[in-house]
Amino acid sequence: MRTSHRLTLTALVGVLAVAGCSGGAPTDDSAPVTAAPSLSSSAPSSSPSPSPAPPLPSPSSPSGTTETPTPTPTATASTAPDPVMPALHSRTYEQARTEFARQNLSPARLKSAAQHKDVTLPRDHGAWYICDTSPRPGDPLPATTTVTVKLARDFSDCTTSFNGYLYEKNDPASTP
User: Fold this and answer.
1) Are the C-beta atoms of residues 98 and 118 closer than 8 Å to each other?
2) Is the CB of residue 129 less than 8 Å from the CB of residue 155?
């Protein structure tokens, strides 16, 4: 019996809270009581609103005192969120440059490097495959971040590594 009373009381409080939060017309507590809300069909702009009109004497107030309208807050310009790092794994370097341009990111932000210590990246590496990226896919990509892509001539070489070397014979830790 006690449990049903508690459950009923909890449900009643929840219903009242929801009804109180969502019911009725929205009011602006900072607006004067005598001012009627203005309705506008245009979207709010980020430009500053014109300065308010000078205060006028109120006919209902004694001794000719004036009411000063409360300024309406203006919308501030918000910055767009940083773009995110696209998934470039298994694409060629040239495809990565194209993807950056498609997402309005500067391809000049791409810095290429060889995946392996014993491989020299040629000047023309547009057909080489991306094995790894820094930052990782999905990470925020602020405007000042340089994206490093690790490249291999063949995509199958992305998973081959002998302590960072492509060829085991070049690994100093390897014993013949």
Assistant:
1) no
2) yes
What is the total residue count of the chain? 176
Query: Which ranges in the chain belong to alpha helices (H)?
Result: 2-22, 93-102
Distance of alpha carbon 106 from alpha carbon 146, whole angstroms? 10
Phi/psi at 84 (5° precision): -105, 155
Query: N- to C-terminal Cα distance for the chain?
Result: 82
pLDDT tens profile 37-66: 444 444 444 445 555 555 555 555 555 555
Under 8 Å between Cβ of 149 and 96? yes
Token digits for 12? 């009643």
pTM, rounded to two decimals? 0.54
Burial of 153 (0-12, 13-18, 19+ CB in 10 A): middle
